[in-house]
Amino acid sequence: MTSNAQQRAALTIATLAAFNTPFMGSAVNIALPAIGAEFAIDAVLLSWVSTAFILAAAMFLVPMGRLADIRGRKRVFMAGMGVFTVASLAASFTSSASSLIACRIAQGIGSAMTFGTGLPILISVFPPQRRGKVLGINVSAVYLGLSLGPFLGGLITRYLGWRCIFLAVVPMGVVILILVPLYLKGEWAEARGERFDLTGSLVYGLGLASLMYGFSRLPATTGMILVACGVLALVAFYRIEMAAGAPVMNMALLRNNVVFALSNAAALIHYSATFAIGFLLSLYLQYIKAMPPESAGIVLVAQPVVMALLSPLAGSLSDRFEPRVVASIGMALTTAGLVSLMFLDISTPLGFIVAGLVSLGVGFALFSSPNTNAVMSSVASRDYGIATGTLGTMRLVGQMFSMGIAMLIFAFVMGRVPITPEHYGQFLTSARIAFTVFSILCFAGIFMSLARGKVR
Fold it and tell me: H or E segment at 241?
């Protein structure tokens, strides 16, 4: 039985870690126009400042979750926080877009190591009847990071420069690295002694990288070839994992556990439909509306503030009611928010945009915690690392596809050009097409969420 002190320590450390990464991501989104101006890069390459982080995290999340189950979750968590903190420090001193993207890749790897272990540690020390509330607190920390990121990122970008955004997360990383050995006693490695599937991990990572880079190169022939290679690699990964004695991703969970499979599918669809919202609206507000970074951040903060406030309530609701019902209502509200953004133009009132963001925030809060609760409640404790890694991968692959859809639309509608006044009309067309695609995706996801079945 885990002591109350151990539970409090795990919750504090996991909550601090859950805040750090989303704060960085949302703050960097606000700084993108400033980064683009300093390095003189086009819209597609600029999107890689965000996408590189997501891709690296997606490539490493499942392997790191499995490695943590074998070698120890606390050990991998500590290493990941170290990598993330050092990469953040290095990013603040970069002198080119390529070196910044390299640092973002390293941040993504560190983030994968912490996310793939922090949540399983949390789940391991709390009993099932308290998980919904605890997950709600953890998700609320994520949304608090998302809330403060645009506002503080805008202020930092305007008055201190975008490089200071990366410096801002370094002290938090150092604090976490001090707290873990002092207060988080013990280790969790339910799969200790099992073999790590290196072949499957490599094929999986290369498949995702080929798929995403191919997306950014479309409609060129090289892009089509890379996308095809990525799809073939992921098919090969599925076959490798089905034959492996100790797979890095337990395909049996996806094949035989309906709740687990459909909950992960719902997460994939939800994040595919929503992640690029911050990227697109940050550019829209600063280019089309000519708003300074801090003002754009204040507008964008509407969504994550609502998410942060409602996530603990949503988590508690999923302890009392079927998570699929709460999550499906959330996805329906997300769809409504996306539909409202399909009508953006140069004269759209800010109040209309904020109302859409509030709807998205309520929907996201009602979806995320209950969906996570459904996933973790559907597996045995020895599979917590794989379950968290799989769910996190759905989140990151969804975010990756969301950015990929946005990049693909930019490539077809705008081409590889900077976002300048003569291209504003094409940018608005691109944004409206993207929100239309996202609305259709999210609407289909409602039925996926409802079909998952009962947890209890």
Answer: helix 221-243
Q: What CATH class has 4-182+248-450?
A: mainly alpha
Please state the separation of Cα 348 from the chain's center in Å: 28
How does DSSP assign 51-92, residue by residue? HHHHHHHHHHHHHHHHHHHHH-HHHHHHHHHHHHHHHHHHHT
The answer for residues whose C-beta is within 8 angstroms of residue 428's C-beta and 6 or more apart is 284, 288, 344, 345, 346
Q: What is the distance between the alpha carbons of residues 391 and 399, in angstroms, rounded to a whole number?
A: 12
Handedness of CA 236, 242, 246, 251 (dihedral sign): positive
Q: What pLDDT is recorded for position 1?
A: 45
Are 438 and 402 contacting, i.e. CB atoms less than 8 angstroms apart? yes
User: What's the pLDDT tens digit per position in 167-178?
Assistant: 998 998 999 899
> Per-residue pLDDT tens for 34-49?
998 898 887 778 888 8
Dist. CA 77–CA 84, nearest whole Å: 11
